[in-house]
Design goal:
- It is globular and about 65 Å long.
- Helix 2 runs antiparallel to helix 8 and helix 8 packs antiparallel against helix 17.
- The chain has one domain.
- It contains 25 helices and 2 strands.
- The protein has 494 residues and is mainly α.
- Strand 1 and strand 2 form a beta hairpin.
- A two-stranded antiparallel sheet has the order 1-2.
- The chain starts with a helix and ends with a helix.
- The relative contact order is 0.12.
- InterPro entries: Gate_dom.
- It holds the Pfam family Gate.
Length: 494
């Protein structure tokens, strides 16, 4: 018996059809794992690879570790290590990237020939993007010179702690390292079957309730333990891998990318609710899922196309074939994980490809974060616009019997600029504001999810299938749906 025949005979013990060699019908179709056949030995190899690489991902992204009295996930430790190692040099690197991105955008959008690198990279941007990049670069140059040279004093409305001093060091530099570290470790999480296993198990819950694949639970968990930016980047990656349709990617990025536990702790403490952290944070998670139940069933999300980025249309059978708990659901998840891991490229190739994708979005994301984030905070800090807009919500707050209506109403719309702002607006008077009102505005800010200084920019820069106007509408809808729900929880808990 030759080797080829031996493999076929061994395979018959595991599958009825032979699988030598493995032929993948379409790698752009993530469901190819349901159509290919592998041998028993290949299955074992795939399962070991899946367990090993997914185990590394779980350790990096989801397992808290206590080192020198500080508790964080390994992703956080690695991220902080690079932030501290590079130090102020990171600010200069980001500034240079923004300058290069701005120059490249004007050239690529208006001068570069079709087919050239610059045209391919910037040609899909709108005509307004180069000017937004220019604004972000100018903000960052002023801030960088201000903090590095005593002889340079930038305008307070650009470099102050309430504007540029919040956006650039905390958000822009933070997202810079989040993308790099995240891009290195994402293949461990996404490419070796972990999400296929989770998706198979959770499909009967996520699909009928939220109209998204079970895999989307990964995005939600990632946002809770790392950051909302990381969750959006994961969603974008899976959309481009044809795991999510346009509608699913829009739903997941705008509905499940909640704030991380660490940032939530900062927000809750700022509102003077540190003693009530657990019930504040976990009630916000419950409310987030309740809001999502309604959001997926109304426009604009309900009107999004069920089309993958490859152009393939998702069928009704694709959506309904796995919505029941059944005896073989665990085995199906294991089979998919093993096949995905076995047919994946080497981890080195996957990491390189992921890093390349990460570095492609960094210049655009960082420059837009600076432009949108600082502009939004300038408007919130130095104009009465959000004060006026907040008055629209006063009657609804009164109807819901929310205390301190006039004091907290301006905080409601300001969350679109930056999710930390609603609490910052009341931070200097928390001793005069009822604890119920503080809970209300804190929880509302955490469930709004869509804000200019981070998630909106990352969604736009990674070219997720959602437009800026749609994001503004979604923010308003989420807010209107959330207000009565948060009010009910406020009356129950406080």
């Amino acid at each position: 018996m030759d080797d080829h025949t031996a493999i076929l005979e061994e395979n018959k013990l595991y599958h009825e059809e032979p699988a030598f060699p493995i032929e993948i019908p379409d790698r752009d179709d993530p469901s190819y794992v349901d159509y290919i056949t592998i041998t028993k030995s290949q299955y074992k190899i795939g399962l070991i690879k899946s367990i090993f690489f997914t185990g590394i991902a779980l350790l990096v992204f989801f397992v808290p570790l206590t080192i020198n009295g500080k508790t964080d996930i390994l992703f956080g430790y690695i991220y902080n290590y690079f932030v501290n190692l590079v130090g102020n040099l990171g600010l200069w690197i980001v500034t240079i990237l923004m300058i290069a991105n701005t120059i490249g955008s004007f050239y690529g959008k208006f001068l570069a020939k079709k087919g050239s690198f610059f045209h391919e990279y910037y040609g899909h941007d709108s005509i307004f993007h180069p000017f937004l990049y220019l604004l972000g670069a100018v903000y960052t140059i002023i801030y960088t010179l201000h903090v590095n040279f005593a002889s340079v004093t930038g305008p307070e409305w650009i470099v102050g702690s309430a504007t540029g001093g919040t956006v650039i060091p905390s958000i822009v530099l933070g997202v810079f390292w989040i993308i790099i570290v995240g891009a290195f470790f994402m293949p461990f999480l996404l490419n070796y079957g972990g999400i296929d296993f989770v998706g198979s198990i959770l499909e009967p819950i996520m699909r009928p309730v939220f109209k998204v694949p079970g895999k989307s639970a990964i995005d939600a968990i990632a946002s809770f333990v790392t950051s909302s930016s990381m969750a959006v980047i994961i969603t974008s990656k899976l959309y481009k891998m044809n795991v999510y349709t346009k509608r699913e990617a829009a739903v997941i990025s705008t509905s499940f990318s909640a704030v991380s536990v660490g940032f939530a702790l900062l927000v809750i403490n700022t509102a003077g609710l540190g003693d009530h952290f657990l019930k504040t944070y976990f009630s916000s998670l419950i409310i987030t899922f309740i809001i999502t139940f309604f959001m997926v069933r109304i426009p604009p999300l309900s009107k999004k196309s069920n089309e993958y980025s490859s152009g393939k249309i998702q069928t009704d059978e694709d959506r309904t074939s796995e919505t029941k708990f059944e005896k073989g659901i665990l085995r199906r998840g294991l089979d998919r994980a093993a096949k995905r891991a076995y047919t994946a490229q080497s981890i080195y190739k996957e990491i390189i490809l992921s890093l390349v994708d990460g570095f492609k979005v960094i210049p655009k994301v960082l420059t837009l974060l600076s432009a949108a984030g600082i502009t939004g905070l300038i408007i919130a800090e130095y104009t009465p616009l959000f004060q006026w807009m907040g008055q629209v919500f006063v009657p609804l707050l009164n109807l819901m019997a929310v205390p301190n209506t006039q004091e907290i109403a301006p905080s409601i719309p300001v969350g679109f600029a930056e999710m930390f702002l609603p609490v910052l607006l009341i931070a200097d008077k928390i001793e005069f504001i009822d604890i119920g009102a503080r809970y209300f505005i804190t929880t509302l800010s955490m469930v709004q999810i869509i804000f200019l200084s981070e998630t909106v920019v990352v969604m736009m820069a990674t070219r997720l299938p959602v437009k800026f106007l749609e994001l503004a509408v979604l923010f308003l809808l989420r807010t209107l749906i959330a207000i009565p729900i948060v009010a009910i929880f406020m009356h129950i808990l406080f």
